[in-house]
Amino acid sequence: MVLSLSSYIHVSLAARHLLDTPAAPPPALTVPTIPSLPKPTLPTFSPLPSLPTLPKAALPPLPSVPTLPKATLPPLPSVPTLPKATLPTLPTNPTLQPLPSSQVPSLPKPALPTLPTTPKVTLPPLPANPILPTFPTTIPSIPTIPSIPFFSPPPSN
Asked: Matching InterPro entries, A to Z (predicted)?
């Protein structure tokens, strides 16, 4: 334990000593010069030989299209005419005799039963102030916090 405490003190003093020494100025940076590279030259080639011209191919003439004979259709057969059908005459409706009038006797109307009357009920009046909590309608003002001297910045001289 004593050994670690003493080594801690030595490290602390060494760090403080490093902070007290003035820092050396940084060495001046020198930029190395880049040698100029030679310009590349493109190799020269001999010109390409010209393409030989090909002779134009002559196409043989197209064979002529033979003409086909025109197709003729045989005439359509004619539709035979059918004899006109005669319908027999329908018999006339005989007149119906009127139905004998019969009167339906009227039924007596039953009397409706009388409903009992319900007694009228009166309710007690409601209380004027219901039992509910009351809420304040105004917001109370917040008191200001007094300034504490050590929270404010020191005066500038």
From this structure: PELPK1_2
Alpha helical stretches, state H, 1-152: 2-20
**Amino acid in position 156:** S
**What's the CA gap between 148 and 151, in Å, rounded?**
6
Q: Which pLDDT score, from 0 to 100, does residue 13 have?
A: 72
At 142, which amino acid appears? Answer: I
- 7-21, 30-44, 105-119: which range is least confident on average? 7-21
Q: Rounded to an integer, what distance in angstroms lies between the CA atom of residue 147 and that of residue 156? A: 18
Q: Which of 1, 2, 23, 21 is nearest to 13 (CA)?
A: 21
Cα end-to-end distance, the chain, whole Å: 50
Q: Could you tell me the pTM of the whole model?
A: 0.13
26-45: pLDDT as tens digits: 777 788 888 888 888 887 87
- How far is 17 from 124, CA to CA, in rounded Å? 97
d(CA 8, CA 1): 11
Q: State how far the Cα of 152 lies from the Cα of 133, in Å rounded to an integer.
A: 44
User: Which helix (H) or strand (E) element contains residue 2?
Assistant: helix 2-20
Q: Which two tokens stand for residue 34?
A: 């880049």
